[in-house]
Amino acid sequence: MHACASVWPPRNTSAEAPQTSPTVPALPPVRLPKKPSPLVVAGLRKVLNAHIQADAVMGPLFLLPAVHSQIPVIERICHTSRGADRIEALNFGSEFLEFCGWLYQDAGDFEAAMYWTNRAQDYATELGDPCVTSYILMRKSNISTDARDPELALSLAESALKNEDMLTPRLRAVILRQRANVNAMLRNRRDFEHDSEEALSQAADGLDQEEDDRARYCTPAYVEMESGGAWTMLGKPSAALPIFEESRAQLQGSTQIRDHALCLARLATAYAAADEPEEACKVVHEVLPLTQSLGSPRVLAQLRRARNKMGRWSRDPEVADLIRRLDLTVEAPASPPSRSEGAP
User: Fold this and answer.
1) Short-list 288, 274, 298, 271, CA closest to 322
2) N or C: which end of the chain has fewer CB within 10 A?
3) Digit-coded pLDDT (tens) for 288-323
4) What is the 3-state secondary structure (H, E, C) of the chain?
5) CA distances from 287 to 235, 250, 329 (A)
6) Contact (CB, 8 A) for 301 and 18
């Protein structure tokens, strides 16, 4: 989800985005190695895998300082490696910086998310791997969707599919899933349904693929849950409810805490939009405890949508009490750390 794009719009200032950014604590001066050993990449890959696992449980706000502290070493490796070591360094560097972009996206800072994803694209361009390039273009499209720029998001998704025949089934699925979401935002229902069906088919084929890629998470269940959010966006929450309920059952007890919380927040929104306040309240009661250990403004933004749709029943004492609890949860979310030096 990379060079800084000077034409990128100003930092998101919507009510759903964090408005202030505390300063990242200054790190002590570190003397970087002139030419890090290739073994450093292997060690940092283990660190990245640990970050990814922690992100699923904790959200982005607690991880960003640690991720930033490792970027200078990764950049030094990419600048000094040669031959086969350089290929591995560029591949890892693009993956790590794309992950940093994802953390900022989940934290609600879309300008910083695009900055780091552009940096990842720089490494991917030199690497010359069409699968990596297409995945990063998909991530840029996804950031643009969250930033409410569907026209740019659609253009980026189309670019990601230019080398479709060279992509794995999972990569095709995740890009088609992203284009489906954009078409839902643009109210292109026919295109949304076509892309959703094709994404589901490709994700099913991906269950048997042997090639590795960066879209291992793109399973049929993932595609279906994403389509549920799009159906709610299209004003068809009744179509979303069975999808989210199935995802709710699959995620029960999962270590993917953020995905579980996001699914429940989307389900509560869909129930409220479908005029089922009792079910919406039950789901909100279930999701609120999960948010206590999460630093994910993305989940809080979805809860805010649920709260807004439940406002019409605020005269009901039970709903009013739950709305007050939601207000305490979502009105002052934690903000992401400020972007590191060199970011826009």
Assistant:
1) 288
2) C
3) 999 988 889 999 999 999 999 999 999 999 999 999
4) CCCCCCCCCCCCCCCCCCCCCCCCCCCCCCCCCCCCCHHHHHHHHHHHHHHHHHHHHHCCCCCHHHHHHHHHHHHHHHHHCCHHHHHHHHHHHHHHHHHHHHHHHHCCCHHHHHHHHHHHHHHHHHHCCHHHHHHHHHHHHHHHHHCCCHHHHHHHHHHHCCCHHHCCHHHHHHHHHHHHHHHHHCCCHHHHHHHHHHHHHHHHHHCCCCCCCCCCCCCHHHHHHHHHHHHHHCCCHHHHHHHHHHHHHHHCCCCCHHHHHHHHHHHHHHHHHCCCHHHHHHHHHHHHHHHCCCCCHHHHHHHHHHHHHHHHHCCCHHHHHHHHHHHHHHCCCCCCCCCCCCCC
5) 23, 15, 11
6) no
CA gyration radius, the chain: 20
Closest CA to 177 of 190, 159, 193, 155: 193
Tokens of 21: 């950014």
Torsion of CA 331, 333, 339, 340, to 10 degrees: 150
Furthest-apart CA pair in the chain: how many Å?
68
User: In sequence order, which residues have a C-beta less than 8 Å from that of residue 314 and are 6 or more positions away?
Assistant: 320, 323
Residue 282 to residue 289: CA distance in whole angstroms:
12
> How long a stretch of residues is the chain?
344
Q: Would you say residue 161 has pLDDT above 50?
A: yes
Q: Is-contact 169 202, C-beta < 8 A?
A: yes
**Which pTM does this prediction carry?**
0.85
Tokens of 337: 């750390």
